[in-house]
Automatic annotation (TrEMBL):
Signal peptide region: 1-24
Protein name: Uncharacterized protein
Keywords: Signal
Residue segments, region Disordered: 115-135
Length: 376
């Protein structure tokens, strides 16, 4: 073999080895994961390889990175999953991320930050792209412990975010913030919240925001949801809260607002500041204590009022143990017919010490327009 042939063979061998090393650095080549031929479908399961590490780290760069051509990423049955900052942002064609049946899920700041142009910069809002990708769908199911949802963990273009059967120890300020466009749905189902900080959900638009079967171990703090626009439905269903602090829910625009089948130890004054574009329903709940004007902040959007497009407020079948004077004050500018209040009594089943009930509470609404109250 001539010297030229030797050099050619050596270069070819180096290229082959280099190519193999490069491909091995993808998440697809880790023992816990497998992918299709195009590397678009990524599925990882730690239990399938019990002799290997039961931890997975999701990241955008370096060994074990999420393939840039991935469209779906599924991670199941691991002891620990760690999501680094902007872990999925390099995958421009990504549609779904599912994390299921893991013991511990750790998130860095901006863990689920994503934009359809990729290459986002941590700490900076994602830049819009001319393509109309609907956004990333994130589903987190059956997770024993999420120590923290840090600031800006969810940012950028997200189609929907769902937590189901999860325990979250802490939700930090701006955990959900800087969302691009309108997110389709944010839902927490059967989720336990240890601590939720003020401004955990701030300044974004979403079609539906749902809390279903959730339990708060600490208070729902003031400005927990603030500067939020909900286009379709804001719903609390079968939710347990020890305290709902004043201005905990500051939301504009829902076509339907519901608080149903829920329990709250104390609802402070003005806890719900919700400007509705449709009806409001507060039904089948148990309240330990209602402070003055607990629901007075539930109003109808000014444009609806100007157009005389009045809505209904249904307050029925609620059990109240204790309440202050003027606890059941409602702004009827846009709710002239508050069902369950004027025509059929209060719709409230009274329980608890009689001494805590203001006199005349059952007399009905005093006026058709303007702030009105039950009582004499």
């Amino acid at each position: 073999m001539t010297m030229m042939h030797q050099w050619t063979a050596l270069v070819a061998a180096v290229l082959i080895i280099s190519g193999h090393v490069a491909s091995a650095q993808s998440l697809c080549d880790t023992p816990q994961c497998e992918c299709d031929d195009t590397l678009s479908q990524v599925r990882c399961s730690c239990r399938k390889v019990p002799h290997e590490s039961q931890d997975i780290v999701l990241k955008a760069q370096g060994p074990g990175h999420v393939p840039r051509v991935a469209t779906n990423v599924v991670v199941t049955q691991c002891d620990r999953v760690k999501v680094l900052a902007m872990a999925f942002d390099g995958a421009r064609s990504l549609w779904t991320v599912e994390i299921e049946s893991v013991r511990r899920l750790e998130m860095a700041d901006e863990a689920f930050g994503w934009s359809d142009n990729g290459g986002g910069v941590p700490g900076q809002p994602p830049q819009p792209h001319h393509h109309h990708h609907p956004g990333l769908t994130v589903t987190i199911t059956n997770v024993t412990s999420v120590p923290e949802v840090p600031s800006y963990a969810f940012r950028g273009r997200l189609r929907s975010v769902t937590f189901n059967r999860v325990r979250i120890d802490a939700v930090r300020p701006f955990a959900f913030s800087s969302l691009t466009g309108t997110t389709g749905r944010i839902e927490f189902r059967d989720t336990v919240f240890g601590q939720v900080d003020q401004q955990a959900f701030k300044k974004f638009a979403v079609n539906e925001f749902v809390l279903k079967g959730c339990r708060f171990e600490g208070a729902a703090p003031s400005r927990m949801l603030t500067e939020i626009t909900v286009h379709d439905e804001l719903r609390l269903d079968d939710v347990t809260l020890p305290v709902v602090q004043s201005y905990a829910f500051r939301v504009h625009g829902p076509k339907v607002f519901r608080v149903q089948n829920s329990r709250a130890g104390c609802v402070q004054s003005g806890a719900f500041e919700v400007k509705c574009r449709g009806p409001a329903f507060v039904e089948d709940n148990a309240f330990g204590r209602l402070e003055r004007g607990a629901f007075a902040g539930v109003t109808v959007d000014a444009h609806k009022v100007a157009e005389a497009d009045y809505q209904e407020f249904v307050f029925e079948n609620n059990t109240v143990a204790e309440f202050e004077d003027d606890a059941l004050v409602f702004d009827t500018n846009g709710f002239p017919a508050a069902h369950g209040l004027a025509d059929r009594g209060t719709g409230v089943r009274m329980s608890g010490p009689v001494a805590h009930r203001p006199s005349g509470l059952l007399h009905g609404l005093s006026a058709a327009h303007g702030p009105s109250q039950l009582g004499g």
